[in-house]
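Usage example:
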Amino acid sequence: MSEPVLSVRNLRLDIPIGAGTLHAVRGIDFDLDRGETLCIVGESGSGKSLTSLAIMDLLGKRIERKADKLVFDGTDLTKAGARKMRALRGDRMAMIFQEPMTSLNPAYTIGDQLMEALLLHRKVGKAEARRRAVELLEKVGITGAERRLSQYPHQLSGGLRQRVMIAMALMCEPELIIADEPTTALDVTIQAQILRLLVDLTREMNVAMILITHDLGVVARVADKVAVMYAGELVEAGTAKKVFDAPMHPYTRGLLRCIPVPGKTERGSELGSIPGIVPSLVGEVSGCVFRTRCEEATEACRGEIPFRESADGRHNFRCVHEAGRRAGVEEPA
Amino acid sequence: MLNFILKRLGLAVLVALTVSAISFSLLFMAGDPAAALAGEQATDVDIEAIRRLYGFDRPMIVQYWEWLSRALQGDFGESYYFRLPVADLIMERLSITMTLGVCGISFALLTAVPLGVVAAIRPNSLIDRFALFLSVMGQAMPSFWFGLMMIVVFSIQLNWLPPSGTKTWVHFIMPTIVLGYYAMPAIMRLTRAGMLDVLGSDYIRTARAKGAGEGRVLFKHALRNAIIPVVSLAAVQMGFMLGGSIVVESIFALHGAGYLAWESIGRNDLPTVQALILVFSMFYIVFTFLSDVLNAWLDPRIRVA
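Running the assembly step on the lines above writes:
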């Protein structure tokens, strides 16, 4: 197998605050191959967005990023300076944000903003950039592309703007696209269309994608790999099939009970919920962060928690219990 | 865009008409103009004669129409005091006031905008504190005191700059600083607040995600959006500087239009006051119109309104 396009080992993000340090993200590991789609799942505040911004090096100055390994397409990002990162951003790695309504600059035309991505990274003329912009607008399904170039963001609907954002991310044919909840802010009727478009285009262009979402229905449809985050930790990661078929971590199981999955949730059965709230991450975090909400919690959960890797490394989870369940509890039929 | 400009232009004309009516009626608000003209020893017969001579006995609307149509041709009547055409009087003084106003607002913008931008890039830094200090000083110091202090230091003690007059550009240095410094704090703070706001916005993150450099992010993506309220404020400040630079003009003995207005009020020279009020208001209207057009160019969303 070839080198993964993105390889992350033990990624940590600390935010110094008045009372101490907020350990926002602790020990994230994953590999992403070319053309593969990784879905990062987790509730609000679990560190999904921070993780993606950390890869792009778009965190504010206040957040400290540390990692044992952070290699993108042969470049060690932990050693890359601001200039190197600028050269990568928008060219080799691109990002699509959650809010299409505010993610485009209101003062410039769609065309200006699309072409900028190409003009910043390639030695091409305006005419060539314009041609590429039209081509991509057509690709993302915008009609009358030529005319749209001279329109301003406020003249476009949210769905169209998100299509523009997708086109913009693809301008330089990147290796990696990070989409941070790209459909959350859209009308439900548009969500599926945009997601389909994103998935189709990344497959067609063989672009790896990190899709951040809290919609497990989406994950089930598009993911090759899944990473489940809870309170800044990676609690379970693996191929989508394995995680969905045999969720190991109690939190993943809880999540799957919360959301109906087509073909998996029985009609008429009750949807679950996970009681409690996410603990504070200020100061030293020890033991399992999920133990206060976990139905499998035991005394051992206060101690060191191993990250259990399967033999082929394709399904890993972080739990003190060998099978993600308290000893002596029977697997429910 | 053309549609927008025409609409704003129409609006500006309406405002100008309203202002002209108000400034015309000032003549009558200040008391009986005929009695004022006739002087204290005049008899009722004299006053009546003057009333007829100047046409004050005719209906108000007729007088207004006549005054307005003459004003539109640049004829504001004759100054009661100088016995000279008001238009000539104002034109002569206006060039001084315009020079001072343009220099003042340029000084204010050239110091306030860069300072505001730098302060916004590094909030709570030393330079931000310094900018805040400057703006508090500017707001707290009255112009007349600051002007006098400048004269004491730079004219009397150091003997670097002339304290009064308008002969050369050197004469304008101190008045420019005093007048500009008055407008600086508000512009600086608005720039800083606008930049802080815009720099935290999603489209700035998008620009960074695209690989845009810091300079490009700041000046192409951020400043254009942050500067919009500043343009409106600067237009108002500019109007104020042209009409309200009386204090600065008096301190530095620049005999500009503001100073003329001040003198004319004291002399009961109503045609001059009337004309000056109209001219100052026109400045406001013109600058507001220009700032509207500039803002519409900066922000396409405004063009729709």
